[in-house]
Structure to design on (708 residues):
């Protein structure tokens, strides 16, 4: 009671405390979270120079541009992120040097004669190879009238940024390439290198003449090798390696027997059905037409050409699945046909219905004699390549047309018969006008029902539990390696160096599970935190084949090593460079054994032959009979005719060579032409490297791994 009395007497204090509490919550919400009024680092995907890229913005653009794309999600994110970088750094460069893309030019790039490569790529009809001007003009009209729907308006706004960025890149590249100049002395040197030919005799002593047991490698040897090739092994960003064991999921004999029984149970109904198309569709099968003997697996190739029409063969195994096949028809197929068609293109379900009605009406007009095919093709066909020819496609061989069209013409249609055919292009009214029979090849029409041989859920669960047991029992890589060593069916694998944004891991390939492994290794898994070297992930990683609904492997992973930016440590790259360091040491031993000896003596010493390379050109990367050996090539061209080289340590062994012929240097006959050729080569390198160089000179902070 005393406490309540005090509160009543000091009620002002309670009000103040409540106000402070509420104010604290409001302030916390203002300065944190995705909707912070002061901005938040929580949603910062990247900082490119002074531009901050928010993850919500990035995901919105990704969804607008690629939401319906079947492209790999990780590859498309990389592409989009690189666009953000290019857009930012090119805009900065353009502002500094005073170039831009004015409105008139932008309109021309989108709708004019000189279309942007981006427009050309996205609006090209894959069948004709030409830009679909009709669709492009529809966009233009809708933009001008303000009737473009919001989603397409957003798409077009982002696409405009892509077009501007691409145009700026091409302008900047052109400015730089126009500044390329090759002085005469360099042209003469390059001309001589390309024109001069040499022949040389050589002996190659392979490294394996020295046994591995004769060589002792120390850490100093590795360090010296890394220092000698520091440019090759230098890392600009942190990398990590993981070590892992794969538990493969294979169907058991019980799984296989169950799947075979399922096919066997369907065969009686398959044999009796009167609607083969519906039956195979309901049982995930398919129909093939125009199948020739050489196109069939040997297990059924002979039978389907002698068994009665309507027979069912199977089950049999082909391409990793049980199959049963029904013979629907056999006939001699023409070697080529001549046909004509009327096409109504289709892009939406509404257009499909309208196209079907139009084609049915045209078919009726022709069959009732109210119109002729040629006139209707000119008036109604959406195929501009042959509409003016009455729809005539001329003669074509099997396989030249898309499959439904091909099958209709070669297997189903008789001359003069009108057929309605659906393809990815739209709805066709097709008439075969002539056929040629030369080889009289028989083909068969087959209906299949199939059942993939995949592991059952019980088998998947058993292997998954096995992997889980490993994770629970072996919490360090040392323990995991010891356990795997006792299992002849398992082995440890080591990944190549991984960066924080990689989504492929060694033999595991690319995909969501590989990406999660990388995120764990770099400490971006929100449930596990930062791992230590030697630690095994508490997760198992599930891999499944593309477009499949079962797991084919479970992976247990540990963090093997961390390498900071710079020259890697010996331990980090020891396995990678050990064969190369070993060859360096072997080369030194061979060098001592052959120093000062003639080619014939060296060949006799190792029971080798003296070989000859002829017409060797300095500009070529490959030496005839030898392959890619840049050190050998360099030595060959600094020697004079008759001179012998010192031992040369190459990629595959130690070489000693003697120049037997060296043509005299000749000045270029057409310096202007050679200057143009040399400039073209330099310009192509600028085009390939310009953006990479600008990226290297830019301040880019990449936080993508925090989010995906």
């Amino acid at each position: 009671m005393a406490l309540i009395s005090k509160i009543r007497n000091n009620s002002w204090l309670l009000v103040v405390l409540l106000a402070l509490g509420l104010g604290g919550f409001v302030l916390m919400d203002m300065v944190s979270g995705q909707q912070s009024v002061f901005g938040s680092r929580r949603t910062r995907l990247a900082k490119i120079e002074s531009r901050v890229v928010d993850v919500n913005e990035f995901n919105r653009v990704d969804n607008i541009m690629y939401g319906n794309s079947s492209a790999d999600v990780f590859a498309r994110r990389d592409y989009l992120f690189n666009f953000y970088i290019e857009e930012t750094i090119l805009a900065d460069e353009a502002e500094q040097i005073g170039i831009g893309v004015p409105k008139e030019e932008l309109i021309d790039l989108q709708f004019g004669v000189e279309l942007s490569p981006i427009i050309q790529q996205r609006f090209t009809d894959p069948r004709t190879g030409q830009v679909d001007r009709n669709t492009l003009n529809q966009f233009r009209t809708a933009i001008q009238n303000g009737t473009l729907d919001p989603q397409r308006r957003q798409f077009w706004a982002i696409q405009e940024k892509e077009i501007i960025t691409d145009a700026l890149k091409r302008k900047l590249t052109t400015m730089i390439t126009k500044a390329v100049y090759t002085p005469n002395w360099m042209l003469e040197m390059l001309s001589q290198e390309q024109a001069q030919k040499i022949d040389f005799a050589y002996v190659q002593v392979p490294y394996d003449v020295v046994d591995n047991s004769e060589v002792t490698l120390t850490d100093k040897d590795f360090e010296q090798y890394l220092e000698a090739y520091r440019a090759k092994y230098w890392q600009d960003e942190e990398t990590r390696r993981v070590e892992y064991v794969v538990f493969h999921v294979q169907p058991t004999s019980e799984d296989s027997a169950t799947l075979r029984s399922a096919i066997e149970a369907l065969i009686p109904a398959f044999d009796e059905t009167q609607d083969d198309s519906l039956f195979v569709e309901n049982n995930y099968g398919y129909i093939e037409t125009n199948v020739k003997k050489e196109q069939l697996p040997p297990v059924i190739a002979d039978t389907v050409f002698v068994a009665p029409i309507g027979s069912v063969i199977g089950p049999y195994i082909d391409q990793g699945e049980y199959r049963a096949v029904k013979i629907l028809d056999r006939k001699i197929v023409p070697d080529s046909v001549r046909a004509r068609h009327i096409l109504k293109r289709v892009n939406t379900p509404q257009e499909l219905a309208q196209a079907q009605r139009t084609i049915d009406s045209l078919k009726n007009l022709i069959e009732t004699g109210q119109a002729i095919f040629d006139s209707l093709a000119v008036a109604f066909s959406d195929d501009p390549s042959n509409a003016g020819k009455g729809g005539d496609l001329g003669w074509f061989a099997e396989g030249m047309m898309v499959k439904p069209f091909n099958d209709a013409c070669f297997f189903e249609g008789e001359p003069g018969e009108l057929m309605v055919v659906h393809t990815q292009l739209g709805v066709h009214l097709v008439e075969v006008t002539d056929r040629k029979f030369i080889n009289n090849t028989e083909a068969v029409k087959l209906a299949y029902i199939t059942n993939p041989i995949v592991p059952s859920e019980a088998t998947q669960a058993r292997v998954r539990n096995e992997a889980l047991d490993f994770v629970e029992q072996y919490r360090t890589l040392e323990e995991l390696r010891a356990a795997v060593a006792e299992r002849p069916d398992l082995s440890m694998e080591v990944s190549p160096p991984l960066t924080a944004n990689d989504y492929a891991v060694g033999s595991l390939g690319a995909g969501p599970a590989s990406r999660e492994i990388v995120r764990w290794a770099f400490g971006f898994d929100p449930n596990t935190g930062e791992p230590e070297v030697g630690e095994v992930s508490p997760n198992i990683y599930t891999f499944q084949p593309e477009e499949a609904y079962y797991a084919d492997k479970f992976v247990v992973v540990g963090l093997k090593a961390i390498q900071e930016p710079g020259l890697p440590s010996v331990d980090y790259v020891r396995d990678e460079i050990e064969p190369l360091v070993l060859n360096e040491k072997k080369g030194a031993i061979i060098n001592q054994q052959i120093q000062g000896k003639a080619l014939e003596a060296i060949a006799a010493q190792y029971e080798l032959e003296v070989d000859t390379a002829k017409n060797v050109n300095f500009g070529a990367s490959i030496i005839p009979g030898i392959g890619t050996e840049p050190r050998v090539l360099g030595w060959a061209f600094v020697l004079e005719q008759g001179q012998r080289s010192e031992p040369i340590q190459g990629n595959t062994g130690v070489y000693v060579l003697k120049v037997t012929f060296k043509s005299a240097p000749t000045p270029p006959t057409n310096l202007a032409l050679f200057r143009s050729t040399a400039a073209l080569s330099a310009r192509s390198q600028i085009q390939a490297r310009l953006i990479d160089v600008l990226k290297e000179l830019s301040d880019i902070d990449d936080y993508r791994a925090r989010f995906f």
